[in-house]
């Protein structure tokens, strides 16, 4: 109750800090400004702050490493650690500061980095994904500090880069030993609790044809026409894979593990038969399967075309895994951290939380797989706002999320170890 | 026989001139050099030469005008006229000097403009399309001149720009009055006689979807998936249109009037559901139908999607006609010019000529429709060499074609008018 009271009295501080965060245009390569601010805020709370540009062979050669960058100069990670009094459970609070590019500016009604507030919503690139969540975590820690609440367990605050490009920031933090008994990641779950996170990875398919003049199209093989068959195989594969999903956490999703074709490109002249079409997409990975298993099943589906179609037999579709990958993650729904989070949610929100599987991957996948830190996603904001023009977040959700996080920290970090 | 003898004795001149033509990299905007050469060669034959940069409202506002250019500065047309002795049939010899860009240079084994000769083939951009034909026409005129053969009818030599982009050069020549009783166009027909030329025009279709995150793909509508339906409608339309073609001139073509989808492009992020796919292609036009009729049938097919699919009903596919258009053309197979050309072919080649419909459009469409000049395509080189890397032409075909053209000129231009 005193947390609620303090938060009510200091709500403007939360809003101001979120606005400051959004006003930092922290697209890739431009994260320094916001990281400096977060480092200062954490220092104000007596956190021991580590700010560094990730580097080194261990990171770059790690099997979970995924980034197109050759170094992270100018893009520091920040981790703040506040040691507990002892014998309590530790927690990682993980949020990324990188935002996706603002896209076509003419689609925005306001400057994407103005942080305009209107009718209870704060607008701007990154407001939902995921500065709203970051502001909620910070505000929770500020309330605990202001109210002089002592925690037994350590609090480790990850303010990371590169989530949008494969999680190299969180991986770098893990490799420095910044792990804990559990992790909370306030990505935009629309205040749902996601104990399970779907992973995903990107594929590229090169579908071949044979060029010819369009007036004698029958002398060629149209790669666009052949791509239709490839799309059908991907649809069948999506059906097969999803028919196997029985976990009730996925019950809300019509397609729990989508295969999405996001990009298509082929040909250069309307009057020519195109000899190559490139398609790119993402395939969802369930926490019950490995990256390798998904890839093997995917390859098998694509290569099945070669059994029935002589063209594909002599011109197999090329499969490439490229760009980004987010590992899946899961925490047992009966895990003590889930119980505490759920209970505190009920107390603050006055209702039972929706508990579902996340339709997308987060750095929780790497935290689970590499950092051995069971991770839960719970945050303000809705998925469909992320990456859109005129992105916004409802301030009331940020405020409520902060209160749930503060209450969860107090209860979790004061759980006795081995008790 | 004396033409054959003279050509045998002067064959090196033909080769040298073709090589000179290929060494002029006459891509769009770079036609000045070759046109200057052709003007000089025609002047050497006592042609009255008109070299001008096409311009003016009549041209630019003509309904058959098709070009992306706003002016033709630096890109002159050349027309040479040699008046006959009188009362003979006149002829247009039409060839374009523009070549398509050389494309990826790494695909070429030699400099595309070197004009290398190897094993009876001359290599280079434009060798087949259509400098081989142009060289054959010029050589035919040189033989007639050298042998002091008098023609009764006028010979009008069109050396035009812009054939590859819609025929504005030939249109400009027609508007200046350079028309005749018949026209010969030595585009690469592989020495077949094409009394009928398929026209074609370019379409662009915008297929709409609804964007969403790929992890919740079911919240969106994938424009790539919707495009599959559009491609199927185009296939059906192609079947319907071709089932109507009964002209035996098209008997050699498995698909007389192809609809070719040449370009596809959509989406920008593998993890997003794409909301727009653009496809571009060409649709063949038979000489028996008008541009407007083909467009109407095409629109009807695309809009039929709206009757069965609610998505298309609320988000109709946008149809655009853009870029290039080649009008169809035809000359009656019993036309006196056809009879003479066929007979001279038989005499020179010792066999009956294949007579077919052209699978592509040429400037013969504009010559027929606007210039009221019945046009025949007959030239050396094969379609599949055109627009390719390592384009080449067989010199023996250029030489034979020149002889057929010379013999045809002698016989056609000495036919009495009205007789």
TrEMBL record, chains A, B:
InterPro entries: ArgE/DapE, Bact_exopeptidase_dim_dom, Peptidase_M20, Peptidase_M20_dimer, Peptidase_M20A. GO terms for molecular function: acetylornithine deacetylase activity; metal ion binding. Pfam families: M20_dimer, Peptidase_M20. Residues 197-304 form the Peptidase M20 dimerisation domain. The lineage of its organism: Bacteria, Bacillati, Bacillota, Bacilli, Bacillales. Its EC number is 3.5.1.16. Keywords: Cobalt, Hydrolase, Metal-binding, Zinc. Its cofactor is Zn(2+); Co(2+). NCBIfam families: DapE-ArgE, PRK06915.1. Belongs to the peptidase M20A family. This is Acetylornithine deacetylase.
């Amino acid at each position: 109750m005193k947390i609620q009271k303090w938060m009510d009295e200091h709500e403007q501080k939360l809003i101001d800090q979120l606005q400051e965060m959004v006003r930092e245009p922290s697209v890739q390569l431009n994260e320094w400004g916001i990281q400096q601010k977060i480092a200062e805020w954490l220092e104000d709370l007596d956190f021991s702050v580590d700010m560094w540009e990730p580097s080194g062979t261990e990171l770059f050669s790690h099997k979970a490493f995924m980034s197109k960058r050759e170094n992270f100069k100018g893009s520091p990670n920040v981790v703040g650690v506040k040691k507990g009094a002892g014998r309590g459970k530790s927690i990682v609070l993980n949020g990324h500061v990188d935002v996706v590019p603002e896209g076509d500016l003419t689609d925005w009604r306001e400057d994407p980095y103005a942080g305009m507030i209107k009718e209870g919503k704060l607008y701007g690139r990154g407001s939902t994904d995921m500065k709203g969540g970051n502001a909620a975590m910070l505000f929770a820690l500020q309330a605990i500090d202001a109210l002089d609440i002592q925690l037994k367990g350590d609090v480790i605050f990850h303010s990371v880069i590169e989530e949008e490009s494969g999680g190299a920031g969180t991986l770098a933090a893990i490799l420095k030993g910044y792990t804990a008994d559990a992790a909370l990641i306030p990505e935009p779950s629309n205040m749902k609790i996601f104990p399970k996170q779907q992973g995903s990875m990107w594929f590229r398919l090169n579908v071949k044809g044979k060029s010819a003049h369009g007036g004698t199209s029958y002398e060629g093989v149209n790669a666009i026409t052949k791509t239709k068959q490839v799309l059908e195989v991907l649809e069948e594969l999506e059906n097969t894979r999803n028919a196997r999903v029985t976990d009730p956490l996925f019950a809300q999703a019509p397609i729990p593990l989508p295969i999405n074709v996001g990009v298509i490109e082929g040909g250069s002249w309307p009057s020519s038969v195109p000899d190559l079409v490139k398609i790119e997409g993402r395939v969802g990975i369930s926490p019950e399967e490995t990256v390798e298993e998904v890839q093997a099943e995917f390859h098998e589906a694509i290569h099945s075309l070669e059994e029935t179609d002589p063209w594909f037999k002599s011109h197999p579709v090329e499969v490439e895994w490229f760009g980004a990958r987010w590992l899946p993650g899961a925490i047992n729904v009966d895990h003590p951290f889930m119980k505490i989070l759920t209970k505190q949610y009920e107390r603050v929100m006055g209702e039972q939380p929706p508990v579902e599987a996340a339709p997308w991957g987060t750095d929780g996948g790497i935290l689970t797989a590499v950092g051995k830190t069971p991770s839960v996603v719970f945050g303000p904001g809705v998925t469909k706002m992320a990456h859109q023009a005129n992105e916004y977040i409802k301030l009331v959700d940020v405020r409520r999320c902060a209160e749930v996080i503060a209450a969860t920290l107090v209860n979790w970090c004061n759980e006795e170890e081995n008790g």
